[in-house]
From TrEMBL:
The lineage of its organism: Eukaryota, Viridiplantae, Streptophyta, Embryophyta, Tracheophyta. PANTHER family: EPOXIDE HYDROLASE (PTHR43329). This is AB hydrolase-1 domain-containing protein. InterPro entries: AB_hydrolase_1, AB_hydrolase_fold, Epox_hydrolase-like. Residues 29-158 form the AB hydrolase-1 domain. GO terms for molecular function: hydrolase activity. SUPFAM superfamilies: alpha/beta-Hydrolases. The keyword Nucleotide-binding does not apply. Keywords: Hydrolase. Belongs to the AB hydrolase superfamily. Epoxide hydrolase family. Coiled coil: none annotated.
């Protein structure tokens, strides 16, 4: 079985980390992660794609994992992610690619396919449906994680009470429940998870350690800005 390799590309003045594997006889597949994720989320799919004859490429989104941090968080935009995707294809001399997006990764995948249809072989999206029309998030409960994390400083204070590994653990437990919980007015999102709650069976302690190490490197400042605090004006 081929081994996943790692490289860095200078894209739009940022050093972006990519993981890649496969010869690409049948084309290239770009895998775009969501939150709280990194390239590592695609490790099994990457190996399966390589075995099937594709080259799998999973970047760490700017501000995530081992990729560089944008200098001005408040100016983060979805256009940045679309431009980064174009830069990756150009730098790797990929004329056309299949795009796979999960969670917020679907937005740059969808927008790229609209802006650059000549560079796309197909688009696969997971978790979030395509939404071409702007919609308000005002209907969400105020104690839901999305509006809570949109509040400047609130999530930082909430997360700051714990080590990074505990934060990532709590988010995954929260996200994999049958129903997403809503916090009371005097309750924080991290408090919704009981410390004794077990990890879901598909997430091992080694996996958790891998995620935690990369979020310790990147921090949560950009991941909270993109996608959560960039949602109101552009969803």
């Amino acid at each position: 079985m081929e081994k996943i390799e790692h490289s860095y590309l200078i894209i739009n003045d940022l050093r972006l980390h990519i993981a890649l594997v496969g010869k690409g006889e049948y084309g290239d597949v770009i895998l775009l992660h969501g939150f709280p994720e990194i390239w590592y989320s695609w490790r099994y799919q990457m190996l399966a794609l390589a075995e099937a004859g594709f080259r799998a490429i999973a970047p760490d989104c700017r501000g995530y994992g081992l990729s560089g941090q944008p200098p001005e968080l408040e100016k983060a935009s979805w256009e940045d992610l679309t431009n980064d995707l174009l830069g990756i294809l150009d730098t790797l001399n990929i004329p056309k690619a299949f795009l796979v997006g999960k969670d917020f990764g679907i937005k740059p995948a969808n927008e790229f396919s609209i802006l650059h249809p000549d560079r796309v072989l197909g688009v696969i999206t997971l978790n979030v449906p395509f939404s071409p029309i702007s919609r308000s998030l005002d209907s969400l409960p105020k104690g839901f994680y999305v509006p809570r994390w949109q509040e400047p400083g609130r999530a930082e204070k909430d997360f700051g009470r714990f080590e990074v590994k505990r934060v990532v653990r709590n988010i995954y437990i929260l996200f994999c429940g049958n129903e997403l919980q809503v916090a009371e007015e005097d309750q924080e999102i991290m408090d919704l998870v009981e410390p004794s709650t077990l990890l879901p069976p598909w997430l091992t302690e080694d996996d958790l350690a891998a995620y935690a190490a990369l979020y310790e490197n990147s921090g949560f400042s950009y991941p909270l800005q993109m996608p959560y605090r960039s949602v109101p004006e552009e969803v």
